[in-house]
Amino acid sequence: MSATGLPPAPAPAPPTGRITGPSVAATTAVFVRLKLSLLRNGTRQSTGRSAAFVGSTVLAALVGALGLLGLVALRGDEYGPDTGVVLVAMLALGWAFLPLFVGVDETLDPGRLAMLPLRPSPLLVAQLASGLVGSGPLFTLLLVVGAVLVAAHGVAAALVAVVAAPLVLVFCVTLTRALATANARLLTSRRGRDLAVLSGLLVAFGLQGLNLALSRMADEDGGLAPMRPLADVLGWLPPASAVRAVRLADEGSAFGAVLALATTAGGLALLLWWWRRTLTTLLTAPDASSLQPPAGAGPDRGRHEGGLAGLLPTGRTGTVMLRVLRYAWRDPKAKMGWATSLGMAMLLPLVLTVQDGGSVYTACWAAGMLGLLMYNQFGGDYSGFWLVAATIGSPRDAFVELRARMLVICLLGLPLMVAVVLGTAALFDDWESLPTGLGLTLAMLGALLAVGAMTSAWLPYSIPQEGAMKNVAPGQSGLAWGSLLGGTLVGAVLVAPVGALALFLHGEPAGWLVVPVGAVWGAALCWGALRLAARRTADALPEILAAVSKG
Amino acid sequence: MAENRGTGIPPIPGEPEPEGERPPAVRVRGLWKTFGEQVAVSGIDLDLPTGRFVGLVGPNGAGKTTTLSMVTGLLRPDSGTVEVVGRDVWRDPVDVKARIGVLPEGLRLFERLSGRELLTYMGRMRDLDPDELESRTEQLLDVLDLSGAQHKLVVDYSTGMRKKIGLAAALLHNPEVLFLDEPFEGVDPVSAQAIRGVLERYTDSGATVVFSSHVMELVESLCDWVAVLAAGRIRAHGPTAEVRGEAESLHHAFLELVGARGNPDGARLDWLGGAR
Fold it and tell me: What is the residue range of the signal peptide feature (chain B) (predicted)?
């Protein structure tokens, strides 16, 4: 893989003289051609992929061009230049996090280059040049040009703009490559990949936060005024300072403009120096895979299982529950599923009530989110499902297996759901709806768990372990969406009788009846579904194993 | 024992063949499997003797993994029957699953459990007595040199360690027949020796090991019975010495059986090692 275990000694000098390696120009040409080939070959694999590639390139160019036009339209707006500064800062932030999500493109994976006789400087230039090829840089260039055009009115400003735009682009590409190189070990290690998977959660919640913040800002007067304070801060930092330089030149502050440009140029130089250093280290120093950890190293989890194992029932039920709970904590995909479902179960009713002023019944969303956890139970096991299959001999075994998985969801979800129902009742001071609301959510959870158990057995699909955004193996997304949508519809039908009862008894003293009715109804649905799903699971173990091992 | 096997002599010369008295450990009849257009296994009939170290050999893509998956109930055959210790794998799965141990190739373990937790999980799933399970886990970890890494997550294990913990999980319930798919693939010599030691001890007790490999030297030194598989068919089977026949080694016999010849174009690489 990488230069593991190789001594960091320079290449032995042959009698004819020192091998200097290919020149900067030659290396750069090779890398740019390599990048172009990679782009081209990426489209070759399937029509879907090439369509996606062409589509995304066109979309990037289109959105970039629209952004450029929009920014040009802001010329003359008081806050236009501030918007440009903030936009460029956002772009830089995007470039910084890019390698985490998009993955590292092969032209910058040092591990693939370690065995080639390349010196750091040509490699650096070549990687930078190949980094400038692609739809991402094109998109960035369009927006950056827009950002500098907003402020450039005079000749001096235009001159600064001509320097600033390419400088910003090169800065962004250098930033992403330097960070990717620095994190190369992390990104290829297990812990790094785990973090990358979990970072999907960060992005989901982060986007939500950004959305909220932006809508709040826009609320104030609908203008771009909120950009001013942001631009005042970000304008001092590279690469946004280069954009600020254009405005300073426009205002006649030559010194200020040069200083602001120099800030970005200095930042770029610093980045290049740091990148070169990490690259050299990466290409010459051994990585963890070639270093033997001392015997007995690693976390000591204790010889005996902790309190949790003792609290769970014995036999297969407790064993399965313990494993599912451990996976919920240790497996990034499972953790993300649990965190999303539990987090959304808490937040969604709250958000919905804040937006439309709902009722206790919005707590049904919590039941829905929890019910989703039961879907595709075996998909999360991936090909490890064979261990389960090897111990399932009868429908009874399958029943206990599925029931244990359902119990874990109830163990964590039921208290949360009851809390959400009580919370929404308290929020609206709507205690009148509490009994019927509680009964309905209980029935709903039961119905969705039941449907989840059935789809787990009949419509299993694989959840690939790698990749934050990849939750379905190629070719199985129809199955996944089908089971989700179909399951939700069936769940709604199953819960309808209790819904009707809740409607009928809403606000009546007899409303409390809905609680036991809902609980018993939900439990009965679960029991019935488990019976059916267990029979199917026991009969179709090889088929389920094949379905969940894909990707 | 190992030296004895190395010579290829049947274990008890002069005495009646054991398979004459005991029913075969594995009985396969008319086994077929196709994936789309591709025929992976085309009509295998095979009896594997009880109490032997059986090698299933063949080049890559011969159908070894497909065959073992179907024999162990992990893959449903298109047609044919499989009996393990006299029980039909597809009609009597409860009984069969309790009597076999499996180490498949290319399938994951529950890797977010530590090695010890994985063994405890499998033992409990198989309903072993807790004290017995504890003592077996301890011994297996010890014998397979995994005690030092028992609290490490399996996801952080090396290939050799994964194979060893997989083997431990397969042996935990003391199965009658053990199926191992490429147990030595990617395994360093130290781990290979540990695995080998455990397997030899296990077969000495009268249990059956069926393992697949394409490393002939290994098969020749370990197995007293082999079946050669190529292109989804059995090309030869029987005691190792018989299959080897007049050939110099099992390796040569194998190449002849699967119809492989040296590549004559190799002679063209005359520049290799020449003036630089």
Answer: none
